[in-house]
Amino acid sequence: MRLADGWKEYELIDATCGNRLERWGETILVRPDPQVVWKFAQKSALWQKADAVYHRSAQGGGRWEKRRKMADEWKLQYGELTLKVSPTGFKHTGIFPEQAVNWDLYRTLIAAAGRPVRVLNLFGYTGGASLACALAGASVCHVDASKGMVAWARENASLSRLADRPIRWIVDDCTKFVAREQRRASFYDAIIMDPPSYGRGPGGEVWKLEESIFGLMEACFSILSDRPLFVAVNSYTTGLSPAVMEYMLKTGLCPKYGGYTTSDEIGLPVSATGGALPAGATSLWLEKLPQTL
User: Fold this and answer.
1) In what helix (H) or strand (E) does residue 244 lie, and over which residues does it extend?
2) Which of 141, 158, 279, 285 is deepest in the core (most CB within 10 A)?
3) CA 196: distance to chain centroid?
4) Mean of the per-residue pLDDT values of the chain
């Protein structure tokens, strides 16, 4: 497992009985996590001092119970990036902290490439990966179906003083966007995919990962440049192992480009126990294997 252990302003304090206890700057939140199936005793006294607790609803979604006065939004620093945090009605905060281990990897790969790198970030959410790539000197095309998420990503770019970097902000269904890039013969040196298990596009298009991912990956392979740098696919679906994603990358890319494939869980260190909480997986095709893997 590759751990996102470079945070200073985020901390996974403890995890038990289906919940995470997290510090986001000076704010402490309790959020449910389906991976936390164990029921060990709480190791931290901070469970009782949480500023807000998220409660799921049987009808879907849920609500935040605020136990102390707290801001609706605040900022979090990760290295040179400044990102807005804002608890949403679907328990998310605008940051998937485990992805920081991938942000660092993308920066390393781009910085070491020694050439211009054009990146396509699909399902780009609030822009952490896009900004990491831009910070390393890449030009980036950031695509997400949610107008609100793209606006949030642009705000993060401004907060991180990266608003003047070459980033295109696109609100679109990712599959349709890639199909248009095929027709336009628009090519990329690196592609990042962070697809949800289930979702809808801006026109009501239904996305189901198991049914849609192969077609999207094949389409993405066709818009890679003659010398691609990397392709990364994130997965949060427990029924679709990272080895499945790696198989598609290996079979679809290695015969043409050579290179290497790898897949692994990513996760977060748990301060109270010294353990690690899995938080999805990443499969990679790489032009070269870096020392960090």
Assistant:
1) helix 242-257
2) 285
3) 10
4) 94
